[in-house]
Amino acid sequence: MITVTDLRLSFGSTEVLHGITCDVAEGEVVCIIGASGSGKSTLLRCMNGLETPSRGSVEVNGHLLTSKERRADLAAVRRDVGMVFQQFNLFPHLTARENVTLAPRKVLGLSAQEADERAGRLLAKVGLAAKADAFPGNLSGGQAQRVAIARALAMQPSVMLFDEPTSALDPEIVGEVLAVMKELAAEGMTMVVVTHEIGFAREVADRVIYMDDGRIVESGAPQELLSHAKTERARAFLGKVL
Ligand code: ADP
Ligand code: MG
């Protein structure tokens, strides 16, 4: 579903991704862990075309994103890849339902009725049928993040990317968002999740990638990497977060 090949990315003269190669199979759940500043968000943003590779390539569901050719496939990738951010990024002046219907109406051309039906179904799926007419300002962080997940799913993406989706939430509501993500994984959604929730990675991930300083240092099954990391760097990181 995703193939990243020798991806390099610079901001100005500073290279922050130093040749990343990895792939994600259809239906696979991959968690990316690593210290702040190691390039996790930048890698994720390359997977939906929010950043342009300086060198190398990213292919998502057959659509190629490179520095030269990316334009042709950018719109297709954006439609095909759902993204959920730490800060929700809901439109504050739209209700939960309107947040979910906007892109299907504008981008996919669904009728108001079709989009409303889809939004109703998805808000029910994330446990928020009763909040469809609420504005983001009147939702808890956990509810807002679940609306953001419903909004991404409304485009019927092939892949869902999550960038620290629970890092801005109070500890007692992290679980309600992780539960929705776990259900998505069980349904077979292809997911790449940047997270510090090691318990989630252990339980849900098919594979864990540990990044440091713009490189993939280690990658493997959760039981292996999280309990028996091969590199000293990964062990030191895990010692701090576990
Ligand atoms: P992480 O998500 O692992 O914390 P990031 O991908 O956000 O790491 O950042 C990786 C590196 O790239 C950091 O050194 C960060 O300061 C730098 N960086 C990220 N975004 C930008 C940007 N838009 N302009 C310049 N530097 C950036
Ligand atoms: Mg980040």
UniProtKB/TrEMBL annotation:
- The UniProt record lists the keyword Transport: yes
Query: Per its UniProt record, what InterPro entries does this chain match?
Result: AAA+_ATPase (IPR003593), ABC_ATPase_HisP-typ (IPR030679), ABC_transporter-like_ATP-bd (IPR003439), ABC_transporter-like_CS (IPR017871), MetN_ABC_transporter-like (IPR050086), P-loop_NTPase (IPR027417)
Compartment list = Cell membrane
- Is Cell membrane among the key words of this record? yes
Q: What keywords would UniProt list here?
A: Amino-acid transport, ATP-binding, Cell membrane, Membrane, Nucleotide-binding, Transport
Cleavable signal peptide: none
Which top-level group of life is the source organism from?
Answer: Bacteria
Main location as per UniProt:
membrane
The ABC transporter domain sits at: 2-238
Bilayer topology annotation: Peripheral membrane protein
| GO MF, one example | ATP binding
Q: To which protein family does this belong?
A: Belongs to the ABC transporter superfamily.
Protein name stated in the entry: Amino acid ABC transporter ATP-binding protein
